Amino acid sequence: MPIKFNITKHDVLAGRFHQLVQKVNGGTLAGDDALLHAQATLIASFSPGHSWQTNRSLIERDTERLRASQEVKNEYAAAKTSRWKMVNSKDIQEVSQMNVPDSLFSVWLAFNTEREKRETYRSAWTNLQKEFDDECDNRERAAESPARA
Predict the structure, then answer these.
(1) Which of 20, 38, 102, 116 could form a disulfide linkage to 124, CB 3.0–4.6 angstroms apart?
(2) Residues 144, 149: Cα–Cα separation, whole Å
(3) Is residue 127 part of a domain?
(4) Helix 70-81 to helix 52-59 angle, to the nearest 10 degrees?
(5) The whole model's pTM is what?
């Protein structure tokens, strides 16, 4: 008897991140790969398993700590260089349930990231938000609708 697995959209995204890890070999990323790297970096930056101080600041809506904390800056640096490679579906799920307001994201972005990467991170965040809001059930229902008509 075959073993069944329930694969969620978070598992699929984590799988894409892990495929990117296999692709990256110290080179520069472009296009979709750069956007995927930015998404993984954001998840690693906001997830409590990778970036406790940042996560706490976002949950508590502490803009002052997001602006001035060296720990938050260090967590972003670690997320960008290595922690993004360890993002899993649980991390993605935790970040998807945080409901980070755009204004708070903008504060974190302005005070903790490099100016030249901000537009990429903003696009990555927008894509993640859309993915977080999109339910799997809606996809299945949309696929079934034309067949019923």
Answers:
(1) 38
(2) 9
(3) yes
(4) 120
(5) 0.84
